[in-house]
């Protein structure tokens, strides 16, 4: 089997040698060899010229040394994973700049969501953290080329000559830049750093955008998986949702890495009612507590996923339990997976999750219609 990107023979043994592909990904291309991409070509296709980097002291200091060169920053956020991509470390670097929040993937929300209400929700969510003009919150779909012309017009109106573009991995930054700019790419490093920067010119305008590598925060569920799984987890159509009305003691999985148990009834001794929103390739599964071990041992990739491969080393992850109470008309955001929206509460749950993943209770992103429980 050869990579259709570079033509090199595919191999599964050594990631340091050209043609590498993980075994579980290699198996998916058997019988469909003409679509196989080695890891290097896969990264080029999905991440552009810049390979993702992790937030660590070295990267943070490098980005800090670069950012002083720019008055304006475009921060690309994924609305489907707002809490996972509105990262605190990035926030600390950009909050005093002329900041544009580029809210991508709005086309994946239900059509009932009004964009004026969505912008109000975002502004209310960020106003205590950043000093931002409401008009600098831009709702876009890079995939559908929606909202991009208005963004360019606004940059021109504000007489912006150059801007730094930042964001975590998988927010659609490369798609946005491909739609806004010419195809000529100049890669360089700023003095004193090894951080790759891509300089691009907006089509028909003398405005330059400087793209930085996508950042892996290690604070999202997606960061526990390889890049192939991460790309498969990206939603491609309207986000999935499912309503639950479980009994006390029931356990609900959202992927194999996150689950919670119902601890009590809601108000008036009724069952809690809530919706789970997540991309289509992330499973929701309700079960009895006594079946949890069997599911984790025998049904990874089939009933509960991601991961999509059966031999994923779940035991290498450090887990913790947390008791959480979510009131009616509140949401629990699960960075990298989705969110739980409570329609009859309170929802009292015992959560099992990897350590260092911060769950966030927030106002509802999708407000139920008045008079409807679901």
Query: What count of structural domains?
Result: 3
CATH architecture of the largest domain: 3-Layer(aba) Sandwich
Strand neighbour order, sheet with most strands: 4-3-2-5-8-7-6
Distance between the termini: 49 Å
Specify Rg, calculated over alpha carbons. 22 Å
Query: Could you list the spans in which at least 5 consecutive residues all have pLDDT below 50?
Result: 370-374
Write down how many β-strands occur, each being a DSSP E stretch of 2 or more residues: 19
Give the rounded overall mean pLDDT.
89
The CATH topology of the largest domain corresponds to: Rossmann fold
Shape annotation? globular
Indicate the proportion of strand residues. Answer: 15-25%
Return the structural class: alpha/beta
Helix content: 10-25%
